[in-house]
């Protein structure tokens, strides 16, 4: 592959979670003559795939309905769903028959996602699991982050995208890596709360605790919807079979806002298992076994995900940074923020990356 010229614009993607990697994928595809570097404290490689310091390795990583209709999110998730659907032959993505259960009667006219998924229909009464009143069925997609993130990295590396393991404290530091003629994509997730120059206090965690199980007869996605108050506060009940390894199912879970606790609560684990067993009696099969307990922090943001351009005047002046050198020349620098997706990072990832690329095309003008 041809290498970018020495004077090619240098675009830095800060953050190596699914949003940062997807943005790097779309941008590097559209601008093959530019130089791209993914900079992150945690990278999609073996040393970091069990780190709780970032969310992407622990995600459910399927498409499931979350909350009420939002036009921007719908467009983002439709783009992503279609992209993942096209990836099914690769083996990284699988189709899943699905049932979403509701604790009250539903009006299918108000089911905003029925045209996003495949094979949507209302469940007959005899198909509704015990404990639910009504439900819907459709076909969705799922993937395994432990396989998908390294695949994204390999795809980027094959294009000449470089990776730098580094903890970055400020927009200034990241901009210096890109240089004056470059730009930055800020995909720092929860890190946007403390990144100097951003310090977005609207960012907050939603704690998710899950179990990974070997349950080969659980072959459908079963869930109560997130974000609709259909289950007690802090609980989220779902099962997500993965494309590989065979028989692996993610069993969840919790949805605990503003909770930073990364420890496993085994009382919670027992509650999760009990709730899911009610939905899927196949979990009682003798060959079923728990493979691991997981806790991750979904990187959410009050007011919704932030995808927008911001021009900074650098050197950055902040009480938290050393003062700029006397006489330092000021310059404008483009940052595109892309963070705050909460539980919908994977299912909105390709759509978010397309938005980043559209904003980049609008605002970035390379130096002559």
From TrEMBL:
It holds the Pfam family DAO. Keywords: FAD, Flavoprotein, Oxidoreductase. FAD binds at residues 168, 188. It comes from the Eukaryota. One of its GO terms (biological process) is D-amino acid catabolic process. Its cofactor is FAD. GO terms for cellular component: cytoplasm. GO terms for molecular function: D-amino-acid oxidase activity; FAD binding. Residues 11-358 form the FAD dependent oxidoreductase domain. D-dopa binds at residues 238, 298. Belongs to the DAMOX/DASOX family. This is FAD-binding oxidoreductase. It comes from Phanerochaete sordida.
